[in-house]
Design brief:
The longest helix is centred in the middle third of the chain and has 28 residues. The protein contains 13 helices and 3 strands; from the N terminus they run H-H-H-H-E-E-H-E-H-H-H-H-H-H-H-H. Helix 4 crosses helix 6 and helix 12 crosses helix 13. With 303 residues, the protein is mainly alpha-helical. It has 3 domains: 76 residues, no CATH class; 87 residues, no CATH class; 118 residues.
Length: 303
């Protein structure tokens, strides 16, 4: 591939990356966003040079790489913040009083009756001093969110909600130094190897499931904390974002749009499959039974 063609692809990829990164405003500062964009651009240029002709769509490829790089950056730099936002997503999707929906500007959150609204609160002033005891109770997150939204009286972007509740619930990034870490290095390394081997085996078995079973299981797959377990597959290097999308018979860009909503509830999965909620439950049950027969039962940690 000549230099002119490579420059054209790089320019297009950079524009797509910048557009995707606008969705992460408030999470990535300008310097972080520039680092992510540079990483994406470097990966695309290397891919085009090493394996030209394999990229069907520059836009789709660049968008997927950017989502992956941005989420990976945030998980590494802000693990507690990322975990907090995932827990908010879970509560918003599983309490009938609450809702989370997507608009052109990004993801909005609020009371169920506000679903579909395009108007988010531009500014709000709710401090810990002004908050009620209910708003400050992270152990009863659904009730706290209902009262927070009632006080603000407008939807919030997911980013704004995460920032506000992190302040109210004292969610902070902590660096913990374990003085016994040196003694545990060997044991931890062994555990990591065993976990990786287990995830490899699990991923192979999941890919052997029927398509409907895979979707019913994977789109609802949770780890022990109720969070998106597919992220563990990617973080452990067991499967790439594109491979997971392929297993779900989705284009990477479509999967990237669904990613913030994972794990999905049964009703939404049913709508995607064109079946009933009970059929989704039955499909996932049969998938788990197959996995349970073929995997070590004591290692099964998925809900």
């Amino acid at each position: 591939m000549n230099d002119v063609a490579l420059e054209t692809i790089a320019a297009r990829a950079h524009e797509v990356a910048r557009r995707v990164l606008r969705r992460f405003q408030g999470q990535l500062d300008d310097e972080d966003a520039a680092d992510v964009a540079s990483t994406v651009l470097l990966r695309i240029v290397r891919h085009v040079r090493d394996d030209p002709g394999t990229i069907v769509s520059v836009d789709d490829f660049a968008a997927t790489l950017t989502y992956n790089a941005a989420y990976d950056f945030l998980r590494r730099k802000y693990p507690e913040r990322t975990r907090h936002k995932n827990r908010l997503r879970y509560v918003l999707m599983h309490d009938e009083r609450l809702a989370m929906w997507t608009v052109d500007a990004g993801t909005l959150t609020g009371l169920a009756q506000w679903r579909g609204s395009n108007d988010a609160a531009g500014s709000f002033d709710l401090s810990r001093d002004d908050a009620t005891a209910c708003m400050l109770d992270r152990r009863s997150a659904p009730d706290a969110l209902v009262e927070i939204f009632g006080w603000i009286s407008q939807p919030l972007t997911l980013n704004d909600l995460a920032r506000l509740t992190a302040e109210l619930w004292l969610v902070t990034e902590l660096e913990i130094v374990d003085i016994s870490a040196a003694r545990n290095d060997a044991r931890d390394a062994t555990m990591q190897i065993e976990q990786r081997q287990y995830l490899d085996a699990l991923w192979r078995e999941i890919r052997e499931l029927r398509a409907a079973q895979r979707m019913a299981l994977m789109l609802n797959l949770r780890d022990g904390d109720g969070m998106n377990a597919l992220a563990l597959m990617i973080l452990a290097g067991v499967a790439t974002f594109d491979e997971i999308a392929a297993a779900l018979a989705m284009e990477p860009v479509r999967f990237a749009e669904l990613w913030p909503q994972l794990p999905m509830n049964d009703l939404d999965i049913a709508g995607m499959l064109g079946v009933t909620r009970q059929q989704v439950i039955n499909l996932r049950r049969s998938a788990r039974e197959r996995l349970g027969r073929r995997m070590n039962p004591k290692s099964m940690r998925w809900k």
